[in-house]
Design brief:
The complex is a heterotrimer of chains A (426), B (286) and C (304). With 426 residues, chain A is α/β, with parallel strands linked by helices. In chain A, 45% of the residues lie in helices and 12% in strands. In chain A, helix 2 links the parallel strand 1 and strand 2. Chain B has two domains: 62 residues; 214 residues, MetI-like fold (Orthogonal Bundle), CATH 1.10.3720.10. Chain B has 14 helices and no strands. In chain B, helix 3 crosses helix 14 and helix 4 packs across helix 8. Chain C is an all-alpha fold. Chain C has two domains: 56 residues, no CATH class; 234 residues, MetI-like (MetI-like fold), CATH 1.10.3720.10. Helices cover 68% and strands 2% of the residues of chain C. In chain C, strand 1 and strand 2 form a beta hairpin. In chain C, helix 4 crosses helix 7 and helix 7 packs antiparallel against helix 10. The two termini of chain C are 34 Å apart. Classes of the chains: A alpha/beta (426), B mainly alpha (286), C mainly alpha (304). The interface between A and B is medium-sized, with 31 and 27 residues.
Chain lengths: 426, 286, 304
């Protein structure tokens, strides 16, 4: 009997010990995050450390899994389809996002973290990831399109890039560059959308209306394609080596000083610093030239909507951390410092924190944001409906190819692509 | 007579020189991609971006530094991938060999009702593109909680039809007397298989070991769907994460690729003799 | 003990019953077939008649997936696949055969050394080697393939931007990887032909070409059938090679195969129903081509 009592006592002691230690050192909450961009994990890790450093926050442990781009989206599709194996937080690329807003939406709406901040945010970036008034994704950047000029080549041709105001100026400058240096002014992508879509969008065009009416064969699209073709025809523009501005062939070719400029979204800054080191100090950024017949100062392109999965066991805590990591002042400043993106929070522009020296200022100069501020007031919304992925696919795989490689007639290309998109919608 | 013999000998020598030269040139051409791979693995990634592929060896920029980077890249995750690949390869090969050799043997050695139907089924399955079954299979894995497990990865390769086919062909080419003699000695059917037939099937096992290791080591799609944790990834998937739309991590990719070829070549060199002998005798009969 | 030619009844349990034994040997396959093939296959058929938008949103839509399937992209994928499969079968049947005959003729020194060496490319990962091929056939004038063209005074080519040159690179990649495997298959067939046949032919005055067509070719027919069958499957179900060269961003759909299209539909465009329908069409194609081929080669006549 005594023995039994002793045993019970011992057990009770251990049990209470267990309970108290459980209280003292609470188990961290475990979350899984999927991304296709390893770079993003640097920001997430930084913001996770900061979160955990604050004793008021529940301890978090985030398992960050990096997948190849296509495969991550495919994996996510399967996981959401089957209702199991999905992560808690996931980075979804903008062109793919609408795929996950079909039917029974498996993502959690983020209105409760987005709406309190909306006066400080560039809200058009959130509309890309919204449906029926609900926000499902948080972007990391605006993605304003700008132009990078190789000043060494331009100087050789006697051109000051600051004098280039319109696309016609750009084309004329290109002719001088070609004549004086034998080098093209720019490259157009033949298997991606980063040449056609920004130009069309800046010109005032888009692929779809919010009601899924196809706009691909509007005059503005045809005019834009015709302009691009005119540059191809006289050699001031060439087909991008490797097919897009993300191919290693292009990096090497551009890095060797073979082309006078390139037009890409702001986030392309870090491709220069990382992959084209020899151009440091030679590249200058400037706003896109304007269209003489209307349009806007820039276009917002690309992006990643970070989303929370509805079936997650910790939806609320995942949202809270995501808000901290991406919607806080600190998070947005780090987005610039770590990733080199143009943050989605208007408050950060002009702040002292953003002026901290970094590799981007070293590569270009520290006037980047002064330039950027001049265009932020006039960037059109893009219209991302559920058929946007289909449209983007047609642009990438057909419109770009037929224009740049096939050398087809702009009007015919636009009509053919529009018809195909209409078929897909029916 | 003597004269023509000399001409024949001469012609034969010319033939030998021509044929051997052709074989040698082809072999050299086939090795070119490896040469590219190895040279690139010695260069810094920025060098790859600057100059693309190049056949010239540049001692100024070449070093084995990238191979050291395999240890440090994302806390040495490359070797985790390596381990996963090895585990899956070994498991898949052993299970596949045991089960399909049994089935192939059964189909070759016994006459029983439905034998032709089963063999036809094996033939048809050899022609079914496995890709079309991915999604339902994945749903099944979820039901049995097998996602993110090595077993889930090898499940569709437990009894590969092409192996059954091969073992059946091979056993058919073995003398039937082997089995008869053993039976007279009082062996059970299983005893005959494991103690008498298996030792006689070693060349076939050699051939299938290499093919199975090859398939497993290079398999991409299915392991990618099944595995979720980066630490459990196989080499092809892991290498895939270094190829991004934002620029490839050549520093890791190229040495990783070279290291990935090594174990399979080692297996090959060891099993080569039995392998070629096995393939030779197994695929003769249609 | 075996006076009446039978094992004594006493010793027979269920598992040693001669009627049962064969089924025990093939049981792994039967279970495997039911679980890994039949059940998923039936599910795929069902899915091909559905519109699937999520776990709780499945709608039966009859044959709509099949009706909507035949658009420009699908036809292009069909074309690409047929073009590739055709050249794949032609090149991978003939080239290794030529090498096998030469290697087996006794005219080559160190034949087994070459045999082993030719096999090594098959051991590599397509994804990784694909990167080498992609860069080798790059668009720039400095790309190795274009440098080679320049040696012959030819202008640089955009190899991977066009269907025909792209297909050429695909075939080259496939040939590079699989040549050694098929050579070994063929040599195994050639070695099974009794040498007396050749000696008799020589006495009859047949030259080596005649010997090849009258002795070697008929002699390796079973191997030929096997090689063609797996090559047809490999050709029609090709996917990895295309991904390795183009990733999913196929310029103008160049190089996108049926499996690639299926993958695009199912995972990229989240249209599982359509993907299932495309998969079944692919299955039909592979089976049809292979069965025609097997009939033409007289494969079924041989079976008892």
């Amino acid at each position: 009997m005594k023995k039994l009592l002793a045993i019970i006592l011992v057990i009770a002691m251990f049990a209470s010990l267990g309970i108290t230690t459980a209280f003292a050192e609470e188990e961290p909450i475990h979350l899984t995050l999927w991304t296709f961009q390893e770079l993003h994990t640097q920001l997430y890790k930084e913001m996770l450390d900061k979160w955990n450093a604050n004793p008021d926050n529940p301890k978090l442990e985030i398992d960050m899994q990096v997948y190849p781009y296509e495969d991550m989206h495919n994996k996510l599709t399967i996981a959401l389809q089957t209702g199991e194996g999905a992560p808690d937080i996931v980075d979804i690329e903008i062109n793919m996002f609408a795929n996950y807003l079909k039917g029974d939406i498996q993502l959690a709406d983020l209105n409760d973290i987005v709406e309190p901040m909306q006066d400080h945010l560039v809200m058009s970036r959130f509309n890309n990831y919204a449906k029926d008034g609900k926000y499902y994704g948080i972007d990391h950047h605006i993605g304003a399109c700008i132009v990078w000029y190789n000043t060494e080549i331009l100087e050789e041709a006697g051109i000051d890039y600051r004098d280039i105001k319109t696309w016609d100026d750009y084309h004329e400058a290109g002719k001088v560059v070609l004549e004086k240096t034998g080098k093209p002014m720019c490259t157009w992508e033949s298997k991606d959308c980063w040449s056609i879509y920004p130009l069309v969008n800046q010109h005032g065009g888009d692929w779809l209306t919010p009601d899924n009416e196809v706009r691909m064969d509007e005059q503005v699209v045809i005019d834009t394609l015709a302009f691009m073709k005119s540059m191809l025809d006289d050699g001031t523009a060439v087909a991008c080596p490797g097919g897009n501005h993300h191919s290693e062939e292009y990096y090497g070719w551009m890095n060797a000083g073979n082309c006078a400029s390139v037009s890409m979204p702001f986030w392309y800054l870090n491709r220069f610093t990382d992959y084209m080191p020899d151009l440091a100090g030679k590249m200058k950024v400037a706003p896109m030239p304007l269209w003489s017949d209307g349009g806007h100062k820039s276009a917002q392109m690309g992006g990643t909507g970070t989303a929370v999965v509805k079936t997650s066991e910790h939806v609320d805590i995942a949202k809270e951390w995501l808000a901290y990591a991406t919607l806080s002042f600190e998070g947005c400043v780090n987005t610039w410092l770590i990733l080199g993106f143009d943050p989605i929070m208007t408050d950060v522009y002009g702040s002292e924190e953003m002026k901290a020296p970094n590799k981007f200022f070293d590569y270009y100069d520290d006037t980047i944001f002064d330039m950027l501020k001049t265009i932020l007031d006039d960037i059109p919304d893009t219209c991302l409906t559920e058929y946007f992925p289909a449209a983007a696919d047609i642009v990438r795989n057909e419109m770009a190819y037929d224009l740049v490689i096939g050398g087809g007639d702009p009007a015919e290309i636009a009509h053919a692509c529009a018809e195909e998109l209409r078929d897909a919608i029916m | 007579m003597k004269h023509s013999n000399r001409i024949d000998g001469k012609r034969q020598r010319v033939k030998t020189i021509l044929a051997t030269t052709l074989m040698f040139v082809t072999a050299a051409l086939l090795m070119v991609p490896f040469y590219f791979m190895f040279l690139s693995s010695l260069k810094p990634g920025t060098e790859m971006l600057r100059n693309g592929l190049s056949l010239t060896f540049d001692p100024g920029v070449s070093s084995f530094k990238n191979y050291e980077a395999l240890n440090t890249y994302r806390d040495g995750i490359y070797w985790q991938w390596y381990k996963s690949s090895l585990i899956i390869m070994v498991l898949q090969t052993i299970v596949g060999l045991v089960l399909s050799s049994m089935v192939g043997y059964g189909l070759a050695m016994y006459r029983f009702k439905g034998r032709n139907a089963v063999f036809t089924l094996v033939l048809i399955l050899m022609m079914v593109p496995f890709e079309i079954l991915l999604l339902p299979l994945y749903r099944m894995l979820i039901k049995f909680h097998l996602t993110d497990t090595y077993f889930g990865v090898i499940l569709p390769y437990l009894v590969p039809p092409f192996m059954i086919f091969f073992f059946r062909q091979y056993v058919l080419s073995l003398p039937k007397e082997l089995m008869e003699a053993a039976r007279i000695d009082g062996c059970t059917d299983y005893g005959i298989f494991f103690r008498i037939m298996v030792p006689n099937m070693i060349p076939a096992f050699g051939a299938m070991t290499i093919l199975s290791c090859m398939n497993s080591w290079n398999n991409l799609l299915w392991p990618l769907i099944v595995l979720n944790s980066n630490e459990k990834f196989t080499i092809p998937i892991g290498m895939g994460t270094t190829i991004t739309p934002y620029g490839n991590a050549f520093d890791v990719l190229m040495p990783g690729a070279v290291m990935a070829v090594v174990p399979i070549i080692i297996v090959y060199l060891f099993a080569q003799k039995t392998f070629i002998a096995g393939l030779t005798s197994g695929s003769v009969k249609g | 003990m075996s006076e009446n030619g039978k094992t004594p009844l006493l010793k027979r349990g269920f598992f040693t019953n001669p009627k049962v034994v064969p089924y025990i040997f093939i049981a792994p396959f039967l279970i495997f077939f039911l679980v890994i093939y039949l059940y998923p296959f039936i599910t795929t058929i069902l899915m091909s008649f559905q519109k699937i938008d999520g776990p709780n949103s499945v709608e039966f839509i009859g044959t709509k997936n099949y009706e909507k399937m035949f658009n420009r992209n699908f036809k292009q994928a069909l074309m690409t696949t047929f073009r590739y499969a055709f050249w794949d079968v032609v090149v991978l049947t003939i080239v290794p055969l030529i090498f096998a005959v030469i290697l087996n003729s006794g005219s080559v020194k160190f034949p087994s050394f070459f045999k082993s060496l030719y096999f090594i490319p098959a051991l590599t990962s397509t994804i990784v080697v694909g990167i080498v091929f992609r860069l080798a056939f790059g668009t720039l004038e400095t790309a190795p393939a274009n440098r080679l063209l320049a040696l012959f005074g030819q202008p640089a080519k955009d190899w991977l931007m066009f269907a025909d040159t792209g297909n050429f690179v695909l075939i080259l990649l496939t040939l590079w990887r699989w040549m050694g495997v098929n050579i070994i298959y063929y040599i195994s067939g050639l070695q099974s032909i009794p040498s007396e046949l050749y000696e008799a032919a020589k006495i009859d005055g047949a030259n080596s070409v005649q010997q090849f067509f009258h002795i070697s070719l008929p002699g390796i027919k079973p191997v030929l059938i096997y090689v063609i069958t797996i090559t047809v499957l490999g050709g029609f179900a090709m996917f990895t090679e295309s991904v390795a060269l183009w990733a999913q961003n196929n310029p103008g759909g160049v190089g996108r195969t049926i499996v690639g299209y299926m993958y695009l539909m199912g995972f990229y465009k989240n249209n599982m129903g359509m993907a299932s329908a495309v998969g079944l069409v692919l299955l039909g194609l592979v089976l049809a081509v292979n069965l025609i081929q097997l009939f033409a080669m007289g494969f079924f006549k041989k079976e008892d």
